Amino acid sequence: MLIHSLSQCSGKVGLIKNKRLELGLLDYPQIVKRPMDFATIKNALLKGGKYVTFDDVFGDIQLIWDNCKTYNMAGSEIYKLAEYMEKLSKRTIQKFRSANGIQQA
Predict the structure, then answer these.
(1) The domain that contains 85 carries what CATH number?
(2) What are 2-37's pLDDT values in tens digits?
(3) CB neighbours of 89 closer than 8 A, spacing ≥ 6?
(4) Residue 41 contacts by C-beta under 8 Å, 6 or more apart in sequence?
(5) Distance (Å, whole) CA 47 – CA 35
(6) Is 104 part of any domain?
(7) What range defines the domain where residue 48 resides?
(8) How far apart are CA 101 and CA 87, in angstroms?
(9) Would 102 be classed as within a structural domain?
(10) Distance in angstroms (rounded) separating the CA atoms of residues 52 and 69
């Protein structure tokens, strides 16, 4: 539910993995060392085994926004969108933590 909620809000941000070549982002692998996207997180959750704690999942969500801000120029529309989504994600994760009695690590 959390991943679905965040991925619906993010639109195309966080989905670069599947569109990288189509978008001409040929230097992405040289700049972003640990790519992450919502589809990868969702698949890992469905398969099991990768995530031991909720914080592992939350860390990969944060990695999406960190990567976006690393690759894009500060002040650009994409960078600003990543900042917005990062704030929204943190609020959503905090609500999820509160609703499920999960302490911050």
Answers:
(1) 1.20.920.10
(2) 666 655 555 544 445 567 788 888 899 999 999 998
(3) 6, 61, 62, 65
(4) 3, 57, 60, 61
(5) 19
(6) no
(7) 2-97
(8) 21
(9) no
(10) 26
For residue 82, tell me if it sits in a domain: yes
**How much is the pTM?**
0.82
Separation CA 26–CA 46 (nearest Å): 30
pLDDT per position as a tens digit, 79-92: 999 999 999 999 99
Q: What is the DSSP string of 32-55?
A: -SS---HHHHHHHHHH-SS-SSHH
Number of H helices, E strands in the chain: 6, 0
Cα 11 to Cα 52, 62, 99: the distances in Å are 27, 16, 25
For the chain, how many structural domains are there in total? Answer: 1
Q: What is the pLDDT of residues 50-79, one digit of tens each?
A: 999 999 999 999 999 999 999 999 999 999
Structural domain contains residue 67: yes
User: Which residue do the tokens 């509160």 mark?
Assistant: 98
